[in-house]
Backbone:
């Protein structure tokens, strides 16, 4: 039985990063991507906003991450973000770091904001220096009054569609809006990926509270998706809160905190799921729900291992109800559980009952794997904790895209 | 410069598991695989042999592993091994366990050896009960004087070729021979995989020494290969030493121990590399050498992470010298090193020098990735430890094979 929870927030049609009050966003084509595609995006807040970020755990952290982290560390505030696609400015040494600083300075000057209030992000090919003449000319061409949809397009690489969402929620009786845009596609794995996500809100909330909120929400959204098990050098989620809504400052003791958290978390999960669904070569979103685990960590580990398994992913692509691979992946997760208690469902078709094959109709099970969203449920009968992980199938197109990314 | 070490052992042409004295092996077609392929294999030693095994670390351990481990635990001896392909007898509950015991008993009776001297192994589809009538009839049809090549064929699943090797080495002035056969293909990952390997030797060596030798050699051979990052429920390496060569009992204090170890380890590495080269859909063997690491564990972790990365594997398939992905994978390994010191070579073409792009010719680098064996070298400049990992590229055929394995 599905429990219907009354959502305290409203999803905005065509919502985006400029849905919250006081934000603008736009994009331009500056010649970094082939075919004159949009490749430079920017977000601007009319007033300095509380800011927080989470960053890749890869040992190689790209130059723009170092520069953006430095900006946020100064006052916990940002007023503008500039993003380029096609080039990650990663593994580019000192020259790359200088280029990221130059990019930040040029952008801050163009908007007339303090250097420390500007953030930079890059995504694309690793190990090539940014063509700074194009980047600088591009930033000089930025004019406010842009289209948020252009921003969403400008940050893409091998993505096939934009990823945008916004919700509104009543806090202290005033409407507070949260918007977001993200890009994903390859190198997507728990603990950040070549994944960039930008969240804006007109809520009033201090930077330290925002940081805790972002970390907590990230652990159950962006960090629960995987495309190919690789973690990029450039992953980053940034959130800006400019206080334009006029609510009282939010913190965990605030009467409407749970409502705000739920709305914020919805935005995180929606962006994460949109990234997973649009994984390189993906034809389906895969959602793995792990129930009755001893700990939430073990539930998460099992979910992520299943959704990351190439054998599970290819079986889903082929709509083959080969549940042995799901069991095998669960057994590789490092989690401790009794294999004789595990049950598995593909959609609503039970395929494993207490560690043994359940009697099921192959056709019905295969049909469950042909849905646009494939749901796999694992019940461990070990405890009361749960977790959900998201990913996608592994198709011929994944190989095609990645065998010739540069050429 | 390549250092040529005088090998103390000789590689036997067409060597196999019956090359050592006192061993026989064979195979039969008993109707488990489609197209009347060989699907039941056996090895027999004329006298009880010292025996040791290493097993999968997957939480789900298939029934035949439990039964074989029980056999070896009793006296540290084996005299016969029976293997079926097409069905893994994994996740089959109590019925599966009873079937594995029945398989062992039937085989022991057929050969006239004690039950505790018989081992069983299975590989293939998970979660389906063995058709015991076929298995029992098949075992009853076993006659000694078989062909070792038939054994090597009978243990295959999606493998495209047999994997066999044998070497001879002089110990105490008498020739000692070591032979092996293996199967691999999918679900191959460090710490065992759907990988079965069987090693025979006529050396005299006690079971406890043999077990230590096997574990040590496994860590630098079978456990250093990966095909798709998944670890099977059925992986097992068994070694039998029947003492027929007439050498003095081997142990680490024996004057010829190093020679014997080198010969034994060559067999392990050759079988492991043959498995990696024949990974599902593979077109090339990939060898990743990590040098000057702080610890051997970190060197191994970096090598395995690189060779397991889908993005690295697809780039190698496409002969795209996209070294950023190699760097990215190294950064995801969990090893600690200074990114500014790392250097990378594709074959003999240096592509990264101290953390930054080296000037290199794209054509030459791409040519390195078109070899039958692609060698990637990573130099960390952190210490003096090293490790080598093996894998394969990721092609369209991997997807093809795995999207329709059962159908």
Residues:
């Amino acid at each position: 039985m599905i429990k219907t929870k009354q959502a305290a927030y409203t999803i905005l049609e065509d919502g985006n990063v400029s849905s919250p009050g006081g934000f603008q966003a736009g994009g331009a084509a500056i010649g970094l991507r082939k075919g004159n595609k949009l490749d430079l995006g920017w977000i601007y807040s009319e007033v300095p906003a509380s800011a927080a970020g989470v960053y890749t755990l890869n040992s190689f952290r790209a130059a723009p991450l170092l520069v953006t982290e430095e900006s946020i560390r100064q006052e916990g505030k940002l007023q503008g973000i500039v993003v380029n696609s096609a080039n990650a400015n990663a593994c580019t040494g000192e020259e790359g770091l200088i280029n990221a600083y130059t990019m930040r300075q040029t952008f801050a000057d163009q908007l007339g904001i303090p250097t420390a209030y500007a953030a930079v992000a890059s995504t694309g090919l690793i190990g090539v220096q940014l063509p700074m003449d194009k980047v600088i000319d591009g930033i000089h061409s930025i004019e406010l009054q842009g289209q948020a949809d252009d921003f969403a397009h400008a940050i893409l690489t091998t993505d096939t569609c934009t990823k945008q969402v916004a919700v509104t929620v009543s806090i202290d009786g005033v409407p507070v809006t949260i918007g977001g845009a993200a890009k994903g596609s390859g190198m997507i794995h728990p603990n950040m990926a070549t994944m960039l996500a930008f969240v804006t809100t007109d809520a009033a909330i201090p930077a330290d509270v925002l940081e805790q909120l972002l970390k907590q929400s990230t652990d159950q959204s962006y960090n629960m998706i995987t495309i190919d098990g690789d973690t990029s050098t450039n992953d980053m989620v940034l959130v800006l809160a400019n206080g334009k809504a006029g609510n009282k400052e939010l913190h965990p003791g605030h009467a409407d905190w749970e409502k705000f958290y739920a709305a914020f978390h919805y935005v995180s999960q929606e962006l994460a799921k949109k990234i997973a669904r649009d994984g390189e070569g993906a034809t389906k979103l895969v959602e793995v729900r792990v129930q009755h685990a001893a700990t939430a960590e073990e539930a998460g580990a099992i979910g992520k291992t299943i959704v990351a398994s190439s054998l599970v992913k290819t079986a889903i692509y082929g709509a083959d109800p080969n549940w042995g691979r799901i069991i095998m992946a669960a057994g590789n997760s490092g989690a401790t559980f009794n294999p004789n208690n595990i049950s598995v469902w593909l959609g609503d078709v039970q395929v494993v009952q207490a560690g043994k094959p359940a009697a099921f109709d192959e056709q019905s099970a295969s049909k469950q794997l042909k849905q646009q969203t494939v749901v796999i449920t694992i019940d461990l009968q070990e405890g009361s904790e749960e977790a959900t992980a998201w990913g996608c199938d592994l198709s011929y197109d994944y190989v095609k895209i990645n065998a010739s990314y540069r050429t």
